[in-house]
Amino acid sequence: MKNVAMVMTIQDPASQRLTWNKPPLSVLVIKKVQDVSVIQPFIDLLSWLIFEKRMVVFVEASVLDDVQLKNNTYFNPVRDKLCTFKEGKDDLTDKIDFIICLGGDGTLLYASSLFQQSVPPVMAFHMGSLGFLAPFEFANFQGQVTSVLEGHVALTLRSRLRCIVVRKNSDSLDKKSHSGVLVLNEVVVDRGPSPYLSNIDLFLDGKHITTVQGDGLIVSTPTGSTAYAVAAGASMIHPSVPAIMVTPICPHSLSFRPIVVPAGVELKIMVSPDARSTAWVSFDGRHQQELKVGDSLKVTMSIYPVPSICAQDQISDWFDSLAECLHWNVRRKQRQFDEYSDLVHSSSNYTIDSHDRQMKIDS
């Protein structure tokens, strides 16, 4: 093209790698709650980080009140050396160099919710029921964490959605989402406990696109495309693709299919004026609140993604998760042609022989 400014630059996801400007000194460790199997790995990891790596380790304050940890003699030498925080009260900005999650995908979603701006790199160990977002196995945690501390590991930048609730006849934003709630998977607008179909108007950059009649609507990131959205019939999108997915929930129309829109647009969702009931909105399954007629939800792509550390690379990790967690394209292999031919040939001979015997009996 003659105009160089019009040339599109396409970034190779493999170019996204973690390199430390200075050695990391602090780490936030998040464990899955109410899971006995995580207790000992959690203690082993804390002890190794504190006594072997000499790092400052943060945990949530409620962890110290865990009965299973209180009664564990191996936890006592670690307890007094931990730094704690409380969700919603303490600001972790600029205090954490990177995050380690022990559990399922819920631990990564929780880690994301703790940082409403820049997020430290996240290393997630699969110890939960799904683990789609957690590519690391805990068996060799020392070697894997050491590799991360040394840097030069692959990253997947998982985009987040910025969601703002604006109330009717009010110039101010909803108190709970004054600066916007950031979600990693999806924001869901549904009919809640109402027996009636939801009636939701959808706008794209100020233009009315459609009215959703059904159980509701899912607005998801590419990361969230393999969560609630795929269960509702959406396609799966690699997390490095800059896009927003809009998926209806049980639409009362055979032609309403999920759509993918550019990451730079603004979505506005409102309860239709002629709706029979209100709607309810939730953010990554949390902070559910009611949307009344005239209220609106604005959704844009956040400038603060979640840097997720890869066990291998961006492509291998994702396809491995598809195969292992969702059993994507898992089926019995088709028989080779020669085996199938032999089978048909044997079957044909058997049929002919049987027919011959039947003819002899009849004669």
Automatic annotation (TrEMBL):
Query: Can the keyword Kinase be found in this entry's annotation?
Result: yes
Which superkingdom is the protein from? Eukaryota
Q: According to the UniProt entry, what is the EC number of this protein?
A: 2.7.1.23
Q: Which UniProt keywords apply?
A: Kinase, NAD, NADP, Transferase
The answer on whether this UniProt entry bears the keyword Transferase reads yes
The record's InterPro entries line, in alphabetical order, gives:
ATP-NAD_kinase_N, ATP-NAD_kinase_PpnK-typ_C, NAD/diacylglycerol_kinase_sf, NADK
Pfam families in the record: NAD_kinase, NAD_kinase_C
Q: Which family does it belong to?
A: Belongs to the NAD kinase family.
State the name under which the record lists this protein. NAD(+) kinase
User: Its encoding gene is what?
Assistant: LOC106471847
